[in-house]
Amino acid sequence: DFGHSSELAFVVEPSDDIAVQEQPLILYCQVEGIQPITITWRKNGVMIVDSENAFMLANGSLYVSRFQRLRGDGSSDEGEYDCMAQNHYGLLVSRKAKIQAATMSDFHIHPQNAVVEEGGVARFQCQIHGLPEPVILWHKNSMPVNTDNERYTLLPKGVLQITGLRAEDSGIFHCVATNIANVKFSREARLTVSGSHSTVYKDPMILVGPENLTLTVHQTAVLECIATGNPRPIVSWSRLDGRPIGVEGIQVLGTGNLMISDLTVQHSGIYVCAANKPGTRVRRTAQGSLVVQAPAEFVQHPQSISRPVGTTAIFTCVAQGEPPPQITWLRNGQILETSDHIKLKNNNSTLSIYGINQADEAIYQCLAENSAGSTQASARLTVLWADGLPSPPQGVRAETVSATTIQVSWEKPLQNTKEIIGYVLHIRKAADPVEMEYQEAVSKSTFQQLVTDLEPSTSYSFYIKAYTSRGASKASEVTVVSTLGEVPAMPSLFIKVINSTTVQATWEPSIKLGQHEGFKLYYRKVHLSQYTGPVLLASNVTAYNITHLDASVVYEVKLLAYNQHGDGNSTVRFVSLRETVERTVLNPPCDCMKDEQNNKTSTTGIIIGIHIGVTCIIFCILFLMFGYRGRLLMCKNVQEQLSTPQIPRSQRSATGLVLNGATRRDRDDRDLNGKQLDMNELERLFPASPSQEQKEKGITSAHSLSAPHDETQISTLPLDEFSIIEEQPDPLPKNPHGSSPAAPAPDHGPANEG
C-alpha cells in the first residue's frame, strides 16, 4: 500500500485480459478504507449500469455473463474498463484494463514446396494473426515433427528449419495454429531432397536474416539467421553499437538463430548476423532491430499530506518506462484542471497547490501511461483548520507613492485578534503566476507597509493574512494597484567642435535611460536667457550638428530624454569656438606641394644623419676595444720588469707605486730612486708615429691621497717620459689646493696587480 491514502486505497485493480466469445468474463476490483465505500465501473469512460449481461458482484468485481465482440445493436464488450471507489474522504479511479476478444485470422503465409540438394538447408514458414498469439506446431506426413532431432529447429513465429538435409527428410509438411479462440491448419508443402552432397565451392549467403521486433520486457525474442554455402559458413552475432550481447538469457537455436529470454530495456538495439567462410575473412551480414518496451512504473509515489489553510501543498510523482510515460493528475476521479493556484511542473511530475483552502481537500491521483501499460498512485490532501483562528484582515488598501514604491495599509480582523503574533503581506506582479509570489512579515502592531524596489508602470496584487501560533487566517481581499511611470534618466552628452561655426552634440544610448520616446536638444548664447529649441530627436538618434554659430561667444548646450511621463533631467555642456578661430589664424592652410618637398628633404637628411651616427658608434667601439687591450699588455710588461724587492705590507700604507702621477720634482729624483724602463720594450708594445705622440693617449694609475678608495685616471703623457719609481716613505705632500693634508692612503698593492 506504499504511496496510497490510508483512508481509501485499491488492494486489487483490474488487469488487461483477452476474453473468449460467448464465455463469461470477470474483472476484479478490491478496495480498502473507511466505510462506507461505494464502487462503480466504467467502460471507455462511461458509467456501466447493472444489466442481465453485466453486473457488479458483492466484492466489487464486474461480471460479464456472455462476452460479445459484436452485438446485434452494434455495441461491443471490448474496451477499457476501470473501477471507481468513493467514500466521504474522496474518490479513486483504478488503472485502465484493456479487454480484447480472442480471435484468429486465416493463414496469410502458407508453406511452399521446396527441392533442396542433400546436405543443404530447407526452410518452411507459415504465418497467422490471433489473440492471444497462436502457438504453431509442424506436422510431417500428418505426424508431429520430432523436435528431439537437433537438425530440426522450430521458431516461435511459425518457421521450421532443417539443416544437413538427408534423403529421409523428404515428405509433406504443414503447420497447425492453436489459441483459445480456434485451431487452424495450413496448406501442405512437399520437401524433396535431391542428389548427393556437392563439393563445389559456394560463397556464404544468408537466406533469411533477422526481422525488426517490438516486444515487452520479460518476453522472449528470437532473431532468425539461416545461411548456406560450401563449406558450411559459421554464423556469429554482434550488436551494431559495439556493446557485448552478454551470456545471461542468451541461447543459439539450430545453427545460427539467436534467442534472448526475459527481455529488458537494455536489450534494445540493432543486431547483426554474419555468415563467415571458415578460415577466411569472406562474410555476408544482415541486421534487424529489437525494441523492448517497459510499462510505466513509479519511481516515487505521491504522499498524503496535511497542510494549514493558506499554505502550499506539493505532490511529487515520478514514473519511468519505455517509451517514457505520460503523467495525468486526477482530483476525486476527475481530470485536474490547472488554474492560478494549481500548477503542474517538471513534465507534470510535480503538482503544486498554492494558498490552499478547504475546497482543495480531496484525493489526488497520478496516472502514468505508455503504449506498454499504465499504473496509478494516489494521495490525500487534508486541509487543517483550527477553531478560534482570526478572521481575514479588513480594509486592505494600496496607494502608489512613486514609480518604485507602493504603501499598503489594512485594519485588524474582526474576530479572534488576541492571539495574533503578526501579519504577512503577499506581493506579486499581477501578470506573474502564483508561484512568483513573495511575502513580507509585519509586526502585530503595524497596519501598514511600504513596499519598495518595484518596477515602474507595473501592476501589483496584495493580500494580507493574520498569523497565530496555531495557524493563519484566511486571506484578505486582494487589491491591485500600479506603480507610477518613470521619466528617463540623464543622458551622457559630449560636444565636439567641427569648425568655426559648427559643433556636434553626441550621446550614448543606455538601458539606464529606461523607457524613452526621444530626446530634446536646446542651445543658447550664455549671455542670453532664451534657448533655441527644443529640437525633437527620435530615440535611435545619437548625434546632432548645431550650425551657424557665432565664433566670438560661448554657447550652452542642453540635452534631455522624455517619455509619456514627462521630461527627464537634462545634461548641460558649454562650448567656445574662439580657440578654433585663433588656431586657424596662427596655423594657415599648408602648401601641400611645398610641404611634400620639405618632407622629402627632411627624410633624406634624417637617413644621412643615421648613417653618420652609426659609423661614429662603430669607430668608438673599436677604439675602446684596442685601447683596453693595449693597456692590459703594458701593465703586464711593467710588472715583469720590476726588480725592486717587494715592500712589506706594513710599509705599504705610506708607500705606493705611481704611474705618470708624480710631480715634476719627483721626476727629477728618478735617477736616484728608481730604474729606467726599457724604452725599446715600450715602443714594441705601443708603436707610435710622431704625429700620434701629440695625441691624448696614456694610462695613469695612482692612489689618490684624499680618497679612501682606488681610482683609475686617464691622462696624457709621451712614452719617452713613461717610467716606474718606488717612492720612499717621505712626508705626504700637501693638497695642491692648499687644504690640510689628507689622511694616509689605505693599504693597496701595486697598481699593476689590479
UniProtKB/TrEMBL annotation:
SMART domains documented for this protein: FN3, IG, IGc2
InterPro entries the UniProt entry points to: FN3_dom, FN3_sf, Ig-like_dom, Ig-like_dom_sf, Ig-like_fold, Ig_I-set, Ig_sub, Ig_sub2
Record keyword Cell membrane present: no
Main localization category: membrane
GO biological process: cell-cell adhesion
Keywords, in A-Z order: Disulfide bond, Glycoprotein, Immunoglobulin domain, Membrane, Repeat, Signal, Transmembrane, Transmembrane helix
Biased composition (Basic and acidic residues): 663-673
Compartments, record wording: Membrane
Polar residues compositional bias, start-end: 643-654
A cellular component annotation (GO) from this entry: membrane
Its membrane topology: Single-pass membrane protein
Domain Ig-like residue range list: 8-100, 105-192, 204-287, 295-382
Record-annotated Fibronectin type-III domain positions: 392-486, 487-583
One matching Pfam family: I-set
Region entry Disordered, spans: 643-754
Transmembrane segments annotated in the record for this chain: 606-626
Stated family: Belongs to the immunoglobulin superfamily. DCC family.
Protein name: Immunoglobulin superfamily DCC subclass member 3
Source organism of this protein record: Alaudala cheleensis (Asian short-toed lark)
Originating gene: Igdcc3
